[in-house]
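User: I'll paste a sequence; please echo it back and then give the predicted structure.

Assistant: Echoing your sequence first, then the prediction.
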Amino acid sequence: MTASKQTRITWLGHATVLIQTPAGNNILIDPFIAQNPKYPKDFPLPSKIHTILLTHGHGDHMSDVVAVAKKHGSTVVAIFELAAYVGGKGVESTIGMNLGGTIQLEDVAATMVDARHSAGAQDEKGTHYVGVAAGFVLTIADGPVLYHAGDTTVFRDMELVRELYRPKVAMLPIGGHFSMGPKEAALAVRFIAPEIVLPIHFGTFPPLKGTPEQLAALVDSSVRVVAWKPGEAFTV
């Protein structure tokens, strides 16, 4: 791994996020690439992606997990049943965990936390039970604490994420229809109390109408809501 001074967070459209740590650890969350209309088509993934984190089993969050894991030599981390499912699809290295658990991924402690959303995986054989939806808190050595909420609505126990982990950066869905919209996300911001919000899961498809500007208008001015575009990176 090569060292850098900051953690780099690149949004690749929808809920797909690439995190590159100060120690050179590359973590990809929810790979939705080939069929993602907002994926920046000229964006090259790093030759090595050490870990892929899956928040849940829906295709717009994991449709490219097998291809990416095979090409980039990745270990896939997911809730136990989903890890077993992708292992059965040909991913050689998986780690199954569950809500409240923490595993060490080089310089990152990854904690699986609750989310409120459905989670079944679909393939040519139908719909499969692959555990429940989750989010991840990433505590980075010599870096910030990050929270990727996955797909979720707001729920009061987000206060536990603040109390236990105190994330500086929260990646929150804001599009509405299938997850929180700006109104709900604004309450989530109150519960989590991050310094920075990186909106995700908006603008990909017509029903996902929420915008960063709408969210920014609803939260305290001390919270920075980043109006980023797919392919753009935020460093912290």
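The first helix runs from residue 59 to 62. The two ends are 19 Å apart (CA to CA).
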